[in-house]
Amino acid sequence: MTDYNLKKNHRHFIDISSLSKSDCREIIEIAKKLKAEAKKQGTNGFVHQDAPLKGQALAMIFEKPSTRTRVSFEMAMHQLGGKAVVLQGNDMQLGRGESISDTAKVLSGFVDAIMLRANSHEALLEMAETSRVPIINALTNFSHPCQIMADVLTFEEHAGPIEGKKIAWSGDGNNVAVSWIHAAVMLDCELALACPKDYSPLEQVMGWAKNNGGKITLTENPKEAVKNADCVITDTFISMGDDNAEERLRDLAPYQVNAELMATAKKSAIFMHCLPAHRDEEVTADVIDGPQSVIWDEAENRLHIQKAILMWCFGKSL
Ligand code: CP
Ligand code: NVA
Fold first, then answer.
1. Strands 166-170, 190-194: parallel, antiparallel or unpaired by DSSP?
2. Hey, which CATH number is domain 5-143+302-317, 3.40.50.300, 3.40.50.1370, 3.40.30.10, 3.30.450.20?
3. Can you give the residue ranges of every domain in the chain?
4. pTM above 0.70, yes or no
5. What is the pLDDT of residue 1?
6. Low-confidence residues in the chain, pLDDT < 70
7. CA distance to 23, 161, 218, 261, 269, per residue, from 227 (Å)
8. Ligand 1: which of 233, 302, 303 to mutate, judged by most atoms within 8 Å of the beta carbon?
9. Which ligand is nearest to the CA of 169?
10. Where are the beta strands (DSSP E) in 126-265?
11. So what's the pLDDT on residue 156?
12. Which CATH architecture fits 145-298?
């Protein structure tokens, strides 16, 4: 008889808010260990000793474009000794109307975990409800938890433990901002957001943060948010699936991260951006390509954190 339940030690990775504080810390610590091991290797095509995910297969479904998420997950599976299968939503029967739950049930018979970059967060949740293998959120309209776990790893490498530090966000209160709100609560750091009124993060997320003791502030004044920050972050003003590009660029222009805004943060502050970036829209070239920017480490850390997320989903610790 096939067991139609998730295996006992297997877990979904849906949002940072659905992890416990200790799960969050565990994933970051696994990533640090795996990165240290990876840095002893001469190439990226290596396989970790003992191939901890040998025999495991991951399906990666993309309903939206991707560079970092796609390559980092595929290489993560390779380096852990497993196998990845990349699928474009439009090439699948999913693109012709096959239901999410039928797709999840079928794929559960072929692979051991499914990573989904979905247009709608509800589709991701439906997949998690109906799949009998772990589901990983690789970005939805609501959140981007894998990215923010990599951001936390990057912050700690450059600026030490994140607990009690001040992170500032200037720009659109989008999916990336939502996952930062979740992370700030789970990892006990301060998060100051500056967003125009109509681009504020969802009220339900702000309410969740408040109810869970988060030190989250929201202002329409970027300088107020960035003042004394240890880290300044922004993201594209036009996310995948957004329309009204012209209106967005106009409304969000005062929230651009530039040298003047960076000067209000701590002298030691770092700059992060999940990429892809649009120079001279959300951030000026002198900032993103300047000495405070850690974007290339941040991008590389997607690989190290994906490995840790996969290990955690499969119930493997180091
Ligand atoms: N930051 C990020 O998720 O990049 P991709 O869209 O290239 O995967
Ligand atoms: N907010 C962006 C992030 C891209 C990685 C988007 O959803 O398009």
1. parallel
2. 3.40.50.1370
3. 5-143+302-317, 145-298
4. yes
5. 63
6. 1-2
7. 31, 20, 13, 9, 10
8. 302
9. 2
10. 135-137, 166-170, 190-194, 215-219, 231-234
11. 98
12. 3-Layer(aba) Sandwich (3.40)
